[in-house]
């Protein structure tokens, strides 16, 4: 009884910690700045879409939205390609080579990329990759590749070795095995990883802030900083921008929900 009560209290507390900030953002997107400051937890006095009209009428934000879509989609797609190839190779390697490579990629997880901000900036500046979508996509791939390989390698190891061996007996090349067997079977894991990468790249502020100065190449999180002044923050517009920026993530999750759930549970139960 005590265990059930403590579990209910814990889950309820956790739910409130998520629900209350979310409601503040949702309600705040329909309020004026004065209402947000004076009554942050109350319902809007007037329900209207003025903030959304102002936001959608901002041409700079429209450009930033398209920039974010372009950078995020390419970053996720290329990361999945490289990570799936590397994971497939690691999963099929002999024990010693597998452990060495796994250790190298584990270092990428152990060392935060933020530690290398200064050398990364100078390297990208010297290579002419600042104010460049290519540079932004490159750093996104570099920083998310280790975790992607870590996730996908665990899945590829679950694929039966007999399937690989049967394909080799039939004369299939390693790339043919990867394309015809490993990839189709790994769709759930690829879907879960894609959503994970999409959220990371879509919400990323650090690398655009470091590498992008031109207004025409700003991503959405960077453009949203315009609503935060030195002495005043327009929370109503900031909350509205957060709501609009959340839509692509919600849509992608709804589209790939089954793959996401299947990817999370893949390999959890063995018969």
Low-confidence residue ranges: 267-271
Order of helices and strands: HHHHHHHHHHHHHH
Which structural class best describes the helix and strand composition? mainly alpha
The H-level CATH homologous superfamily of the largest domain, spelled out, is MetI-like
The number of domains is: 2
CATH architecture of the largest domain: Orthogonal Bundle
Shape: globular
Helix content: over 70%
Percent in strands: under 5%
Measure the end-to-end span: 33 Å
- What's the CATH topology name of the largest domain? MetI-like fold
- Name of the CATH class of the largest domain: Mainly Alpha
Query: What is the rounded Rg?
Result: 23 Å
The major beta sheet can be summarized as: none
Account of the protein in words:
The chain is 75% helix and 0% strand. The chain is an all-alpha fold and 271 residues long. It folds into 2 domains: 1-48, no CATH class; 55-265, Orthogonal Bundle (MetI-like fold). The longest helix is centred in the first third of the chain and has 34 residues, at 59-92. Mean pLDDT is 82; it is low at 267-271.
Overview in brief:
Helices cover 75% and strands 0% of the residues.
Question: How does the SSE layout of this entry go?
Answer:
Elements: H1 2-28, H2 33-38, H3 50-56, H4 59-92, H5 95-110, H6 117-126, H7 133-156, H8 161-169, H9 174-185, H10 187-203, H11 206-211, H12 220-223, H13 235-255, H14 257-265
List keywords for this structure.
271 residues, mainly alpha, MetI-like fold, 2 domains, 75% helix, globular
């Amino acid at each position: 009884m005590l265990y059930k009560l403590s579990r209910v209290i814990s889950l309820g507390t956790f739910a409130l910690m998520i629900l209350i900030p979310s409601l503040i953002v949702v309600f705040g997107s329909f309020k004026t700045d004065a209402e947000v400051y004076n009554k942050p937890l109350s319902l809007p006095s007037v329900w209207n879409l003025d903030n959304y009209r102002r936001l959608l009428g901002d041409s700079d934000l429209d450009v930033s939205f398209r920039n974010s879509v372009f950078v995020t989609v390419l970053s996720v797609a290329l990361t999945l390609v490289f990570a799936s190839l590397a994971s497939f190779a690691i999963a099929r390697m002999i024990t010693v080579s597998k452990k060495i490579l796994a250790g190298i990629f584990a270092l990428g997880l152990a060392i935060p990329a933020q530690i290398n901000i200064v050398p990364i900036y100078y390297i990208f500046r010297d290579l002419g990759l600042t104010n460049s979508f290519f540079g932004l996509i490159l750093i996104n791939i570099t920083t998310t590749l280790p975790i992607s390989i870590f996730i996908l390698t665990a899945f590829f190891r679950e694929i039966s070795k007999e399937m690989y061996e049967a394909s080799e007996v039939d004369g299939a090349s390693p790339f043919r095995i990867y394309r015809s067997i490993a990839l189709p079977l790994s769709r759930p894991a690829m879907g879960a990883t894609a959503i994970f990468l999409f959220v990371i790249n879509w919400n990323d502020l650090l690398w655009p802030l470091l590498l992008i100065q031109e207004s025409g190449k700003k991503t959405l999180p960077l453009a949203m900083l315009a609503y935060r002044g030195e002495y005043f923050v327009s929370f109503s517009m900031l909350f509205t921008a957060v709501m609009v920026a959340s839509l692509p993530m919600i849509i992608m999750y709804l589209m790939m929900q089954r793959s996401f759930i299947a990817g999370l549970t893949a390999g959890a139960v063995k018969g």
